[in-house]
Amino acid sequence: MSEITTTIVNGGAVAGAYRNSFNLQPPAGPSTDAEQAGNSFADMVREAATDAARTMREADAVARSGLADGATTQEVVQATIALESTVKVAVAMRDKLVAAYQEIMRMPI
């Protein structure tokens, strides 16, 4: 047998709590590195994309150098592994961003 739980919530109290949430401030204390550097979420995503593109270009350059006998097999393998790892992380981030966007779009307004 399942239990049925009901809760009576005062609508005025909920509205007041919602209004008060706009006035919340973070606790005073040591700030994080991101706050000190002034980085926003968009800046962090931009930096991650830039780093991923740089890793891809470097791996491509090492692979081309390896074909021209300018890089050892070990260097080519390491660059390829770094490239594969970067692509996996980029795809995982993309999937999480798309999932978050879809979740936001499903929220009732």
UniProtKB/TrEMBL annotation:
<dbReference type="GO" id="GO:0003774">
    <property type="term" value="F:cytoskeletal motor activity"/>
</dbReference>
<dbReference type="Pfam" id="PF02049">
    <property type="entry name" value="FliE"/>
</dbReference>
<dbReference type="InterPro" id="IPR001624">
    <property type="entry name" value="FliE"/>
</dbReference>
<dbReference type="GO" id="GO:0009425">
    <property type="term" value="C:bacterial-type flagellum basal body"/>
</dbReference>
<dbReference type="GO" id="GO:0071973">
    <property type="term" value="P:bacterial-type flagellum-dependent cell motility"/>
</dbReference>
<protein>
    <recommendedName>
        <fullName>Flagellar hook-basal body complex protein FliE</fullName>
    </recommendedName>
</protein>
<dbReference type="GO" id="GO:0005198">
    <property type="term" value="F:structural molecule activity"/>
</dbReference>
<comment type="similarity">
    <text>Belongs to the FliE family.</text>
</comment>
<keyword id="KW-0282">Flagellum</keyword>
<keyword id="KW-0966">Cell projection</keyword>
<keyword id="KW-0969">Cilium</keyword>
<keyword id="KW-0975">Bacterial flagellum</keyword>
